[in-house]
Amino acid sequence: MSKETFDATRRNHSGNKPFDEVLEANLSRRSVLKGGVGIGALTAVSSLGLSGCFYPNVSKAKLNFESIPGSLTDAVAVPPGYNAQVLAPWGTPLTSQGTTWLNDGSNTGEDQLNAVGMHHDGMHFFPLNDSNDDGLLCINHEYIDQNALHPNGDTIEDGLRPIVDEVRKEINAHGVSVVRIRLEDNVWTVVDSDPLNRRYTGATEMDISGPLATHPCWSPNIRRKVIRHAAR
C-alpha cells in the first residue's frame, strides 16, 4: 500500500519498528535487482534509471520444474510431474445442517451458512498436531456473484430488497470458511461435518478483544444492533 495513504504508526503502538523499515534495512534495492526478481523486472525498471544496479554475475538459481507455455485454455495447467484438483468449492457442505449444492442457485440462506462461501480469495493451511496431511484450510470469501447465487439474480423492487432470504444468503456467502482437510492416497479431501468446520460471516456474533474491545463502536448495544441489521 502506498506510504502516501497508509501510516503504520497509527496502528502499531507496540514500539516495534514498522514492517517497511525492517524490510528496507534488510533488503536493499540492489540485492533485489541482483536476484531472479530483478531479472524478471528488468524491462519494467530500466525506464526508471535503475539498470545500472544490475551485475553480470546474475543468480544461477533454476526452477525445479519444467516451464509451461502460455495458454487460453479454460483449465488449470501444471508442469509435468504435478497435478491439480478441485478442493472445497463454493457450496461444499461443512456441517450436518448443510445440504448438497444445487447449480440452479436454489440453495437457501441457511444452506449457505453451513457451506463453503463464494469466490475463494486468500487462504492458509494450518496443520493439526504438526501433521503435513491433516489440518484446517482457512479461506477468505471477498465478494459474491448475485446472478449465480440466486436462480434469477437478486430481486429488487422500488430500490429495495423484498426477499429476506436472498440478503441472508448473500451475507452468508461472504466471510471466512474453516475447512478440515486430509491427504488420503495422494488426494486432498474435505472431512465432512468435522467439529472444526465452521463459517464466519458479517452476521457472526463474536467477542472483540485487545485494543478494540473498549472502543465505543463495539459496545454491547451497538454490536447487537450491527448483528441485527446484518441479519435482516
How would you describe this protein?
The structure is a single chain. This protein has about 230 residues and is an alpha+beta fold. The chain folds into three domains: about 10-55, no CATH class; about 85-200, no CATH class; about 205-230, no CATH class. About 25% of the residues lie in helices and about 15% in strands. It contains eight helices and five strands; from the N terminus they run H-H-H-H-H-E-E-H-H-E-E-E-H. The chain has helices at about 20-25, 30-35, 35-40, 40-45, 110-115, 145-150, 165-175, 220-230, and strands spanning about 120-125, 135-140, 175-185, 185-190, 200. Strands 1, 2, 3, 4 and 5 form a five-stranded antiparallel beta sheet that branches. The longest helix is centred in the C-terminal third of the chain and has 11 residues, at about 220-230. The chain is globular, with a radius of gyration of 24 Å.
Summarize the structure.
This protein is α+β, with helices and mostly antiparallel strands.
Global shape: globular
Query: What is the rounded distance between the termini?
Result: 35 Å
Q: What is the number of E strands?
A: 5
- State mean pLDDT (0 to 100 scale): 81
Helix-strand sequence? HHHHHEEHHEEEH
Radius of gyration: 24 Å
In total, the number of domains comes to 3
Work out the strand percent.
Answer: 5-15%
Summing up helix and strand content along with how strands pair, one would put the structural category as alpha+beta
Helix content: 10-25%
Most strands sheet: 5 strands, antiparallel
Count of DSSP-assigned helices: 8
